[in-house]
């Protein structure tokens, strides 16, 4: 409030001037008696004792006139003319009828604040009309706050509200409705004020369920209302009347009535003292002890100017002021100028010795002031009919009207013909149907799960009932009426809301929309939503033998064959041991595995055909071959087993998988699905944003009843029907061509529907819980839902097609074999290189030794040859000297002559003799024989031999 006070101080500072004289703040009292006027003067005198020295309060008063015009004239002549700053107004003496309307209007025109201490009419709460009016008493319509607390304390949640047709009646009804969200007003009865006969308005009370009556009436109207109510026997045992302050003062108020009385409500003196204290506090805050002078104070009603700025500032300061400990309690105002935090007595009407007596049995304080807002002593209360126990507040009829709908297996129906009657021994009950269009009644018999449950509940709770079928044939939905913004329920829900029925006994789904308008019992069965489809037989195709494996797996198997064949070829090709001799003594070698043979080998192992012509030769390739054989064994075994399963278990299967199936989420014209219109299922799809597409697709196709939709499923006119799981599972059990698919969704429960705030709700719920505990509900499930099922074949158990995830380990095994083969061939090559180096070193050593031996032998042979040549030459020389000379030579060759058949030398006949000076070749010198080491080719060596003519030279000249 600091900012408000600052603004007010600024405003006041603009209209005041500093003066050396003492400032006087004038208060006028328009009171009922001179005594109250003197009380005002005394209160001002006491207040001045606590005022600053430069500021004082001054009081004057006049008596309130019952005539509004005279009151206004007296105000102008005796009050406004004196320069009054604030007015305190009461009521005329011995009259509560004339409110200070003229005073409020006049002062409001001149912006003079007015504080009322007795006016409680609702009209003064309108600040647009009564601009400067405040009051220390609350208006009558604020009693609705106390009524609400009393109802909550007594645990009454259903009432009948009776009020006049004037503004007072409308205001108190509006305030009660705005605050009593948990209280149901069963009926609002409006009556004209001043009527002499209220029986036509009160007669309907007897037919209503509620027995708690809230009455807002003046004392005069209340007299006639109570007399007429007593004549209609509406004030006796079982009723509870809670009335306004004015009605409680009626002479004809019946015994047992509860009412209110405002604490200090009639103490005019206390209110005057509180007003003076509040004004003193406000003035001190406004002027803050500073000597000021208020200017432009209105002093005549002849002045047409109504703008007094200081008056508005004073009014705002009073609205913001709070008096914590006044004679009437805490005094404060709301934005309408009405008193906040009022205190009330709770009173009870008693008749003692023929005299009416109002006894205080409790009190009420504002909840903002005290946590214990309401305190009532129940033991002191006398209720209508002189009862000491609190009435229940409702008229519980033991004859209940039950509405139901046909819904197999919960409710079966059959039409009665002729003299036919329902078989009570089989729990059949009469349930007539009134045609909604023609109004013609047709008799039916009803039986089933819900009827059996109703019979048991009625026995436990002790009520009787009459059953009828809902004329609309629908459960009901909340829809707009005639394309307007107004929404209403239809179906059996509407019958309950319109009180055409007391209870709905059917497979009624509990959902938030319905729970906002009707009550539900505890669920008698828990369920969800599911989808019903017709089974479709799997057609065998030409490529059905490929079904055991996915396409990806087939491709990988085929690819693996060729990869393994290629790796086998490469391992054998580059392995040092890829070739070997066929036999120990045979130099013929077998070639390594070629690519074609490797391919045949890989396919042969996989298909177990035995047509492979070649096999791996190297160790690395053989390891891979063994791994490939293991791979082939697993693949072939898996394929064989899965193929047998596919061929044997060729069962019918569902066309969709569940609510998330693409054919539901992305619908097309060839796939139709629906539910029942105006049902909880339809509301569920409408409520769920993620299912909005499905809802739009279904809406024009929805069926009136579940039976029609199920029949279209059987006839293949509808591909999928979405409905309660209990019903669809029952249908699937009865017809082997139908099947429910997918997981349950939209889980909820089935309950008994009752009117809002029905007294039977808790009793029905307790009965259902007891039936669950005793196992009766399970018996009903077995009797109506589980029994009678056909022995349908098991659901499709076709094994899942094997994919890469199932066989990945086998491919990893092949990959491991390939890697192992590569590692082994690397080892083989490394080993071969190591052995090759050793063999090369050994060969070089052997070759060196052979060369050394050859050289030694060569030298020996050469010496021997040279020795023979010398000897031969010597012999030839001797012979030449002994023979006769023949043909002489030319000095370069010896003479030729016949020596037998020889040539004069010890040489072959066909060999020409050497010429003198001719260098002999090594072959000629050695006679063609030369040492040749084994395992090496013969190499021709040449040597130079001196001619005989040089024989006289040193022997070292004959060298090789």
From TrEMBL:
Record GO cellular component, one term: postsynaptic density
Positions with a binding annotation for L-glutamate: 507, 509, 514, 724
GO BP terms, alphabetized: ionotropic glutamate receptor signaling pathway
Highest taxon listed in the record's lineage: Eukaryota
Annotated stretches, region: Disordered: 866-914
One Pfam family hit: Lig_chan-Glu_bd
Subunit structure comment from the entry: Forms a heteromeric NMDA channel with Nmdar2.
Residues of the Ionotropic glutamate receptor C-terminal domain: 428-787
The protein's name in its UniProt record: Glutamate [NMDA] receptor subunit 1
